[in-house]
Write a structure and sequence with these properties.
Blueprint: E1 2-5, H1 11-26, H2 32-41, H3 44-52, E2 56-63, E3 66-74, E4 78-84, H4 93-108, E5 113-118, H5 123-129, E6 132-133, E7 138-140, E8 143-151
Parallel strand pairs: 4-5
Antiparallel strand pairs: 1-2, 2-3, 3-4, 5-8, 6-8, 7-8
């Protein structure tokens, strides 16, 4: 397992992985509006623009040179994407990706918490990572999520 920052060239395969996993595990729980909102958020041109401006940071986990999982952070400490291919679930990849973000936040010294708006599918995984709910499930533009945070 190898966790590394992603480059601009890695973004297309990362977004393909994200969309594949989303469609299999998340989309069945979302309305058409939510699915379209997610697709809009992950439009390649917009993601590249945010990446180049430093508004989004991505890390990937590779196993045998295959991208197995991806995490993205905005505003230094808000996880906005965390997806792992189905065949790599329950192997510690999400935890390893999260630990990369955790280390990055801890090294700054000015971050007191990491936040995420967890999809219904991922709530239990985030609880296992140490996140706590800060509110009940909400829906905005068709996207269902539970706000959560991890205190450093």
């Amino acid at each position: 397992m190898n966790i590394t920052p992603l480059t601009k060239e890695d973004l297309k395969p990362a977004l393909d992985l994200i969309m594949d996993v989303f469609m299999e595990f998340e989309a069945p729980e979302y309305s058409e509006e939510g699915i379209n909102e997610f697709k809009t958020f992950n439009r390649y041109e917009d993601v590249v623009s945010k990446f180049e401006k430093g508004e989004l940071c991505f890390w990937g986990c590779r196993i045998d040179d295959r991208l197995a999982g991806v995490i993205a952070v905005r505003d230094i400490s808000h996880i906005c994407l965390l997806f792992v291919r189905k065949e790599y679930h329950r192997r510690g990849i999400a935890r390893a990706l999260f630990n990369q973000v955790l280390g990055s936040c801890q090294s700054r010294g000015d971050v007191s918490k990491i936040t995420v708006n967890s999809s219904p599918y991922a709530v239990n995984a985030y609880h296992r990572l140490g996140f706590v709910d800060t509110n009940t499930e909400q829906t905005v533009n068709g996207i269902r999520f539970t706000p959560m945070e991890y205190h450093l």
